[in-house]
Each structure stands twice: as C-alpha cells, then as structure tokens.
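testing teh design pipeline on a random one, pls ignore if ur not involved
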C-alpha cells in the first residue's frame, strides 16, 4: 500500500512522487553459497520504477542479516543482548565467560556474523542455565570476582525457577506459539486439558507433573510458582528466551493434541475454562472434604484424569475438533 504523505524524488518521473513499499526477492552469494532474501523496495506510485529513499539501504542490510542468520541457524544480536540481560553481565565479561576473546561479543553486537561454533555456544547458554554455570566455572579465572558471583548467582536462581520437566517446558513453549495471549489461569487449564486428551488418546501422560485441585480448578503447582515470579507479560520477560526452540522437540502426536486444545479450549478465557473444569468429575471428586477458601487441594492424579477423558473420548470422539467442541458446548450448558 502507498505510504500516505511519503514522497521522494523519482529519477524516472523527474519529480517528487508518492511511493509504495513492497517486498522483492534477490539472490546473493555468501561464502560460495546462493541465498534468496526478501528485501523491502520503494516503488514509484506513478511509473512503477524503484526509488532510492533515505534509510532503505540500512533496512535492506538488516533484513539480509536477519534472514542469513535464520537460514544458517546463527544467533541474532537480539539473542546476545537478551543473554546479557538474563545473566546481568556486560559484553566483555560475557565474551570471557563463554571462552571467547574479550572483544568477540562486542564485535558481534556491532554486526559481525559469528561462526557456527561460537553461535552454538551462545545458543546453549541462552537455553540452559546449567550450561551457563558450567561455562562460568570453566572461565572463572578470566572474570572479576564481582562479575562471576553476580552471573553465577543469577544462573542458579534461573535454574531453580525452571525446575519443571523438559516436556512441560516444551508444551508451554508450544502453547505460547499457538496462542496470542495466555493468562496464568488459562495456561493452567490448557495444560490440564492437554494432559487429559493426550492420555486418553495415547494411553500415557504427556508430562510427568502432578495436578492439584485448587479453588480455581486444576493447577500444576510448579507452573504456578514459575509464573508467579514473572512480574510482567511472561513472553516479554528476557528469561523466557530459555523456552526458545524447545517446542521443536515435541512429537507430531504431541503437537497434534496441543493444536486440538488450542483450536477449541483456547478460544475461551481462563474463567470460562475454570467453569468447565468445575463441572468435571476429576476436580469434583478431588475437592471433596476441602474447604473452598484455601488455595490448595488434593492430588488430581494422572490416572484419574486419563480415566475421565477416556470415557469422554468414547462419548464425543475428542480426537477431533468437532468432538471437543460438542463436549465444550455440553459442559458450558451445565455451567450456565
């Protein structure tokens, strides 16, 4: 579309003209390998010729850099800045902590493209606090005591924070990929539905964590503790970079079930999902004998969840979105 009010000189029209920003594919050879990049070009709205406008060359350089890094699986400048923010460490100390030369990270931040080997080290540190601790210990003598203690203490605190299972982290990561916005209450209910539907369809739980019957429905306490520490939108927190790429390790069956839940239960708010769980046998049975005023409850066992959803599957066929929607409709009818 035309950038309203945006005009520049068109050398073909020989006058000021409005321009449109469009995408154009170009092929560039980098290190003896051809790559196709999508870059932004300015096109004259009158004659259709490409125009040179201020700032466009810099934008194209950035676009090519980002796409090249993505194609080669290399870390971005944003990834490195995020790593510095997570571990509260400066660029030169980070470089030394990872076993690089002191000016390596500063050069990467200025735009130099890292090697695959060094990129993989940065990515590993970004995704694993345990790996970051290992690198800090290996290179302790290169760091000042203050820098080492601060980064190591941060790594330990993050490691304690992300103490849920790898499978749970992968499922959470995939949920965030599928949903535009997820509240802590909504996340808890989606995890519960995913556990129930997956276990009913495949005869085993998708993750090992146990569920509890709290006053607001089924809750995974470890996940509750994890999100309680995030003061803002979890997706915007730098520490959530630890989840980046984890969803790739899910199986196709696991992704299929998460997709089913996201496309059905995921259309409702956390409070609506809470009403559904409050009318399900697992929560009702687990809450017997517990007062509604305390934020804790009985174990809502994986077996109890699986057995309930096994029966629901026989009635509704919850391996399809149609079956799940029919079930949701019936449950909301009971809640009204």
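output:
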């Amino acid at each position: 579309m035309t950038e309203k009010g945006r005009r520049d000189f068109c050398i073909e029209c020989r006058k000021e003209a409005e321009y449109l920003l469009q995408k154009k594919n170009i092929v560039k050879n980098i290190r003896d390998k051809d790559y196709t990049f999508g870059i932004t070009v300015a096109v004259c709205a009158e004659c259709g010729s490409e125009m040179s406008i201020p700032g466009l060359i810099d934008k194209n350089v950035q676009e090519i850099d980002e796409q090249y890094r993505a194609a080669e699986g290399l870390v971005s400048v944003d990834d490195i800045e995020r790593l510095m923010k997570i571990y509260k460490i400066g660029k030169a100390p980070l470089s030394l902590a990872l076993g690089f030369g002191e000016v390596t990270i500063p050069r990467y931040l200025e735009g130099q493209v890292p090697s695959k080997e060094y990129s993989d080290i940065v990515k590993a540190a970004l995704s694993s606090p345990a790996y970051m601790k290992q690198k800090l210990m290996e290179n302790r003598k290169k760091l000042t005591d203050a820098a080492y203690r601060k980064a190591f203490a941060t790594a330990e605190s993050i490691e304690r924070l992300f103490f849920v299972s790898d499978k749970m982290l992968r499922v959470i990561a995939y949920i965030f990929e599928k949903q535009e916005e997820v509240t802590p209450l909504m996340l808890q209910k989606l995890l519960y539905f995913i556990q129930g539907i997956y276990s009913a369809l495949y005869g085993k739980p998708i993750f090992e964590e146990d569920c509890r019957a709290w006053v607001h429905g089924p809750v995974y306490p470890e996940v509750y503790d994890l999100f309680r520490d995030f003061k803002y939108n979890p997706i915007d927190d730098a520490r959530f970079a630890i989840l980046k790429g984890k969803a790739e390790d899910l199986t196709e069956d696991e992704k299929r079930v998460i997709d089913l839940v996201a496309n059905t239960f995921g259309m409702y708010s956390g409070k609506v999902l809470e009403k559904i769980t409050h009318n399900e046998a697992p929560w009702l049975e687990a809450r017997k004998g517990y007062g509604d005023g305390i934020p804790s409850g009985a174990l809502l066992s994986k077996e109890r969840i699986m057995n309930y959803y096994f029966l629901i599957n026989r009635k509704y066929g919850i391996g399809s979105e149609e079956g799940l929607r029919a079930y949701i409709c019936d449950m909301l009818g009971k809640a009204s």
